[in-house]
Fold these 3 entries.
Entry 1:
Amino acid sequence: MAEKARRQQALRVSWRTKALGLAAVATAGSFLGAEVRRIWKLGSLSEEQDGSDQPGATRRIGRMLRIARDGYGVSRARRNAVFNMLVSFMVTLGATRSITVMIRNEVGPFRNVQFGGRHVHHFVPGMVLCLVCGGVALGTRNERLHTWLAVPFGGGVALVLDETALLLELEDVYWSEEGVVSLRVAFTGLALLATVGYLIQFLREGSSQLLESDWRAAARAWQDISEL
Amino acid sequence: MSATGVTLQPGDVLGAYRIDRLLAESGLERAYLAEADEGRRVVVKVPRFDTVVNAESLRRFTRQAQTAARVSDARVVELLGSGQLADGVPYVVEEYVGGGSLQDLIGRRSIEIGTAVQVCSDVARGLDVLHEARIIHRSLTPACILLEDDLHAKVGGFALAKDRDASNLTRAGHTVGAAHYMAPEQIRGEEVSPATDVYALGCVLYATLTGQPPFASQVGMKLLWAHLQNAAPDPRTLRQEIPVDLSWTLARALAKDPKERPATAGTFARLVQISWESAALRSRDPAHG
């Protein structure tokens, strides 16, 4: 009974943390929603122009995938990178929190990772991911590669921020009152990342920006030619 | 005039011309083979119904006659006359070029590289004459390049030609042209220039050499997107005997930036000629390589 009570107490978070979480999820959600709408709109240009809309569930799924691929493919690399990083961050944070709860409650197949009798906290693979992806990104000038490096990098950042309290206190306080700091920092990181996503659309990006405007130009030109 | 436009029958007489048969049809017009009084064969073009009822299309139809009238060169299809039918519908009379279009030839057989180079030179000469008259063709395709019996080429099809000194028929930013042969700046609705026709000539040469335009596998707006963003596939992947130098020269004409293309169609044709001749020389005497 005492153990159960301790666990319930540890999971309790203040209304401030909940409000911060709500604000972060709302900011990230609205950004991702806007990005998905934009990608869909861009991808739909080629569908409408080609007139290849066919009935049937398989065709509908195929059409959706084509629209997503086309829209994403012509989007600016930096926007795609922030989009990937944000999605990866959110998914990793959600999955990590779920897994740690399951481990704590001894539900499901997950257990703490031990190496040489020592508990390997998840900030360790997080740091490795950040180091490797950041290093490769700094050493290359390939925008497309950066877009995909954003996925493991976002995941790595989420793993590290989720253990901020441990890194600050130098003590495993994940489930204690001090551990809530990790959640607050992670929520703040999420909100900041979404804000960066909003701001980045105002940056000029040379050839990458041309990609998106050329796609629109091609759609407009095809319509003009078809009307001729 | 029929519901689908002006239809002429064999034996009909328009001024000095007697209609023989229908030669070709496009969205804009019908072209008839006719015979002049002196026995010379000519082409009589009359607008289709859609053209007659659409003021812009009708202006395009008459504009092509005005354009052809401004230039006179052996490498440009000659305008012989124009007039109006009884109901006021305009018609134009052009010289008849007996060897069919380059499009027909491409469809029929593989064209020798030397012949392709010759056709390119002829078309470049015609384009230079147009450009000197401040006319941009804007819709150069193998279909509007007509061949004489000895395979020398003439440039025709001026329906979308732009007179740089005249008022625009096209509203600003509006795109016109032939999708497989369209320059990036044309797709973006930007200002066209002689470099726009050089790009189209590059696409025509590509099609003449390989049997297909540069982005033949693309359709719809993705074809235009390919013109804007993708490098044209190396023509040597489709026809290995094309010399490397010629492939590079072709790539220069297909540069996305108009400033990176050869300055004139004639310059491009000379580069093509040099590439071909030097390759031919090397193949005869490898010591020159």
Entry 2:
Amino acid sequence: MTASTITAPGRADHARDLGAAYARVAHAAARATRAQPAALAHTGIHYLIVAVAISSLWTRAASGHGGTIVGYRADALVWYLAATEVTAIAPPLRLIDRLGADVATGRFELELLRPAPAVWIRVAAELGTAMPRTAVCTALGAGLALGVGGAPASLAALALAGPALLFGVALTVVAQHLLAAASFWLRDSRASWFLYQKLQFTLGGLVLPLEVLPGGMGRVARFTPFAAMSYAPGRLASGHLEPGWLLAQIGWLAVLGLVTARVFAAGERHLGGGEP
Amino acid sequence: MTASPSLSSSLRRAAGADQTGAAAVIAVADLRRTFSAGRRRNRRTIEAVRGVTFTVEPGERLAFIGPNGAGKSTSIKMLTGLLRPSAGTVRVLGLEPWSERRALSRRIGTLFGQRSLLWGELPARTSLATLGAIHGIDRSGLGRRIDELGELLEATHLFDQAVRTLSLGQRMRCELAAALLHRPQLLFLDEPTIGLDLLAKQRFREVLVRLNTEHGTTVFLTSHDVADVEHVAARAVIVNHGTVIHDSPVAALRRNLLTAKRIEVGLARALTVPEARAALGPDIGPVTPLGSAPGRGEEAPVDGIAIDVDTRRQAIGEVLDRVLQRLAVADVSVADPPLETVIGEIYARPAATPAAGPGPHAGGAP
Amino acid sequence: MRTQRRRRAIVAALRGLGAVWRTAWAEALANRRSFVVQMTVMMVNDLVWIFFWQVFFRRVGSVRGWTVDDMMVLYAILALAAGLVLGALANLRWLGPLVANGDLDSALALPVDPLGFLALRQVSPVNVGDLVFGIGLFLWLGHPTPARLALLAVATAASVAVLAGFLALLGSLAFLPGTAGAGELGLSAVIVFSSYPTDLFGGALRLALFAVVPAALVGSLPAELVQHPSPAGLAGLAGGAAAFAGAGWLSFRLGLRRYTSGAAWTAL
């Protein structure tokens, strides 16, 4: 992508060129990830360890309660957890740490010299990296759920779980970029990473369906982006035909995308000495 | 400083290391090490060291040099007990290194490249005290020893700063202090000057020489830098492809082999090589283009040239004068020849003067 | 005479290793603020898990005979063991990379036991947070009595021995070619599975959690010893601890022999 094509006349041309640039970056990142089968296998095994452990806990709990707990049958819980754990394990590792460090050390500043918006080039690359990882974890998760849980309760809902997983992973990537932006002002984003993990863990329903959360917490959690990240694909995979979750995911992607763009613009102005 | 032994006597001593090796601090006879590399079908055997023999007398300053992959590191690992030889005998301070490694480690000091023994967040003094405790040095003796080393290495002020904040050169002096805590008779250094800037290298080399001349510590260092040999060692052993191809005092080496300097000139105005040669005069050494694509022929003008000077025939200053007067110079530097060139020279003249002739095992060289 | 000299050598060696450990702690504490922050982060992390277990058991009551009380003891022991092994003996976790990067050489050049030296020379503040959390958790929700505290100490010691031995075993894999990455997966497997009651798992997996990835010996069995002490439980745990600690030590020694014999060298 050269500067001249970017500044070509016409907004539509510009947008198309940018889109092509993002696609190319994402494609290259995906190819680089696929080129390391050992690392992909590592991700897959790690996913299986976590998914087997947590799904064993919940299926035993359900079978101790006559087969159903908080409205989920044991097999539905396996499908649920297999899906939510994909959104925890498949996104690229230490994203907030890496981006935060690059912002704090000034490496990110150099990327601002490029003609395309630096943050979206980064998002595209991380999404590209995430895709093969998501594919591996999803395949293993489906295998685990079929083997341990059994046939899915609703094929239609399961069909929606596929895009929901992709949107969920995309949401984690955008949200992590947003939190890493703390480095513009704090020079350190490790606390953001930590905060993010804990919020996804609890409000995202990563290891327990939101219905289990005490009091109104579960109801509130449904209206956070974390629920859209993890709970949404879990809910669909466990046989609940609730297409509204896909809309919620798209909505949150739009909102977080907008906020991220604003925050990075402010951060870049901050780097530039406060001048717009 | 004792003169290095003649080859025949070192051979004799190495062969009978067990009987007469008491005087030698290192006696190596026909040392060999093979590795097998590759998996199953294409497994092959690599001879990293193939028949190295030499002895080192107390108080010597010896540089064990060779290009990457020559067998230097493998050899120093066998001398310090980290690696068991495939064949041959080694005695270091009368001990067999690999079977008596712990006992040997109490009597030798080692500095392996850039590997650190120090705790980064703490002042070096704390690390030195800890390593002193490992060596079993009592507390009062330890304090005195650290002061002594601070003075010797001009590092007293460094000992109280967090190691992390030191420059590489400063840190290497602290690492050296750690290697010397227990007053070793013999110091092994594996590529100690790698990565140091020019000034730090020079300072480190001076310290090694002083350690040797003032305290009598035997110094054995490996390097692939010709300057380390010139500025530290009194004796040079050159290895290539796992064999010793040269063993002589450095003075002899300098007289016979380190006779070339290379002047690199960046030109303010591009010239062809023949033009440059004509400008410099017919008695100048070989002139070659710098950094240009080969195969373009001599007729293409270039931005830089290299001149190889034989310092036995021509003073380097005289050639430099001529370069500065007759060419439009943008930049100029003088360098030692790379080790590979020196080694090429050794192979090129098999029957030089006896003192600087190839070692007894040169026959095995390819 | 000889035994006396031997004893003196052992005392001197222990004194040296003690100095190394003190220095490692001093280094971890050198930046006091960062130490506290990192510790706190881990403690909040542990707290979120406690929240999870509390919510879970409030809804479920018990699972396969495990109650919330059992689970709190399990988590306390796991936190203590992780704190002591991953925190205070931090390098055991990085043994593989240390071996692969040649850091072993500098340890071998010292008159000291190389495994002990490497294990003790670094303290990780993050996991020290686990240590503090484990103590706090047991005092808070573990129904502490002097007898139970004594049992906790024994159970934790066994858990530490198993975990340390297992990490040494994993690290020693680095002496063999083509085992990169196994260490990290092994660690995540043992930590993840030991934070759940082993009774949840059946078949081959259950067997593996005793014999291959000893998660059962790190979490569940020590917790059962505190909750339902029995001579058989103690004997089983002690046997497992001795087996894994011994296997870790032995594998490192064998690996070291392979290393110095040059067989571990794939390149020059």
Entry 3:
Amino acid sequence: MPAKKHERLLRCVITCCALAGLSNYAAAGVLPEDRADILYFKYDGGGVTIDGPSVLVRKSIGEHVSVAANYYIDMVSSASVDVETSASPYEDERTQSSLSMDFLHGKSTYSIGYVNSDESDYKAKTMFAAVSHDMFGDLTTISFAFKNGKNEVFQNVKIDDVKQNNPNFNEGLGFAEMESKSYSVSLSQIITKNLILSGQYEVITDEGWLNSPYRSVRFFIGTDQQGQQPEVYPNTRSSNAASVRAKYFLPWRAAVDGMYRFYTDTWGVLGHTAELGYVHPLDKKFVGGDWIFEGRVRYYTQEAADFYADIFPRADYSNFMARDKELATYGAVTAGVTATYEFKIERFPWLTKGQINLRFDHMQVDYDDFRDARYSLGSFGTVPDEPFAPGTEPLYKLTANIYQLYFSAFF
Amino acid sequence: MRTIRGLFVLTALCFGAAGCSSIEPWVKPYDRENLADPIMAGRAAISQDFLDHVFESREGSRGATGGAGGGCGCN
């Protein structure tokens, strides 16, 4: 069976990211600028390669309306550590299209949007609405947003060597449902002529099928043998996340920014995120053009979910059992650089500005309680010559490189 | 639900305060040249969304990744 590591919560996150992207530009009191972006991205790490294009176009209609559309394709080729120990490599493709509108009325901006995501074993439809308002002499912006996503989960199997949805999945229904809602409040405040602060608080609630249709947990049989059984998750999850950000304009025309986020949820996951960035333009008399360079470091750490274990003491050990490394205890560092070249083309006077951007990030993840089970279970059915005893394998480490090349046109 | 209701109340209070306030902005519009500089604008959404997706698909945390307006009123 061509089982795959189906990161189902990821799909919900992807949709939320898309919504955030479409609404990112929505500063109250001012319509977003007209622009078009085309991106090629590639993620390569941990046996997984994801690449594809994304196109985002934003255009004003009159003085009070702005429309944004995004089309995005993920092409996944996976032989991750989870897949290696329980299945065969797989390839898949996800397409996502979205549309949003911003309406400017006085000092307020009202936004609505819709996202449709389609994959062979996951379909998601999400809508959102948001309002932002400028006040106190435009020094303060407050925003409130709501999102509602309805998702359908399927399980792919191969029947007569043809990949298709398993008709017996979820007790014969063939699919499972999940609904997600998000409520957020954010506040942005100009402190001085060089400093801006912002904060955000977001509550997300999920209900329905929340675990993977594919992934398994492992458990001890006696003291030196192990078995596997499907994961079992709760069918609800509520999370709270609060973040603060600051950005400061430096005296030599450069900018430094910082971010901290605190996260907690009803599954027991506790997360801390911190990020520091520096943006520095280079004078064209030294480099022959308008260049902007950016460096960024991000640190993330989390404590595991209450029902996570690398290996459980026995089969059916508790009501809920997970071995998803996203729910494990670990720390991660990501460092990245971006180079941006700005240009104008005399022949195209309608083009206010063009940009070519190249971005590279390197990620290193060190897990505290997720072991590399390939040392005991083997890889794609091939058992190691000298397998480790269950629970004694080396801790897993993930390194990944992330590449982005994108063009931006402002008009 | 109490948390959500609290958010609505907070939002309503802020909007109300804005309506009846006569607070003088201490950073005048003509003092916002630095805040309006393109290097303060943040990263392109198309790029940041992809990176947020990479992080969140590998992390237990989610939400509060930004999206608030700049509040500069500089454009």
